[in-house]
Specification:
single chain; alpha+beta; Glutathione S-transferase Yfyf (Class Pi), Chain A, domain 2; 2 domains; 54% helix; globular
Length: 224
């Protein structure tokens, strides 16, 4: 299953200090892979250097470098990492056509409806008005929309299982991080979502990745 040499000097993650970089660091801790971290942050100017722009012209973090292969976007990085490591094997459901369909459904829902359409509106127009401008109606509408979407999805979150199939996956990282972000901005969450978050984050790997991603930052609480 592994096509690359996973030596530490072959696997590098650029970026710390945001919810998106945290996703990648958490999965790497789950997989137990050795890797180098280039501790650049968002909005410090470090993503604007010539060196980094050559890697990622979008000037965003995180970026993964694996040998000569470069990949950006946190979900794409997580999907790649999980497939080059045997540490988190896919169960039968996850490998089925139905399971793959549900995977894309959950990933699209979390990234688009909960993150980009809802929480990132709050981030831009409440937390970063100096860059994006104040828009209180957009913020309140985004919060209301998030709550509507999460309440619709909550019944599908099992009370004693992971989000997708019988084992932990990158979807759990996406959903747990989204719930955490929603809690931080004061969004009301259904009980099932809160219980799910408590269950999924009760892991040494989560705590280790959290320390690794958020320590020694130039910009404190540099979310997301």
């Amino acid at each position: 299953m592994t096509d690359h040499n996973l030596a530490t000097n072959d696997l590098t993650v650029w970026g710390v200090g945001t919810t998106r970089t945290f996703r990648v660091h958490w999965l790497l801790h789950e997989l137990g892979l050795d890797y180098e971290t280039r501790r650049i942050e968002s909005r410090t100017g470090e993503t604007l250097t010539d060196e980094y722009i050559r890697l990622n012209p979008k000037q965003k973090i995180p970026t993964l470098v694996h040998g000569d292969f470069v990949l950006s976007e946190s979900l794409a990085i997580m999907r790649y990492l999980r497939r080059i490591s045997a540490a988190l094997p896919f169960d039968q459901y996850q490998q089925s056509a139905e399971g793959q369909g549900v995977y894309v459904e959950w990933a699209s829902f979390i990234l688009m409806e909960l993150d980009a359409t809802s929480l990132y509106i709050v981030r831009r127009h409440r937390d970063l008005p100096q860059i994006y401008g104040e828009a209180p109606l957009a913020v309140s509408g985004a919060v209301e929309y998030f709550e509507k979407m999460m309440n619709a999805a909550a019944p599908r979150i099992g009370s004693d299982q992971f989000l997708w199939g019988s084992c932990f996956s990158e979807l759990d990282i996406l959903m747990a991080g989204t719930i955490e972000w929603a809690r931080a901005v004061g969004v009301s969450l259904p009980t099932r979502a809160e219980e799910y978050h408590a269950r999924v984050t009760d892991r040494d790997t989560y705590r280790a990745a959290k320390r690794h991603n958020f320590r020694d930052l130039q910009l404190q609480i540099s979310k997301p």
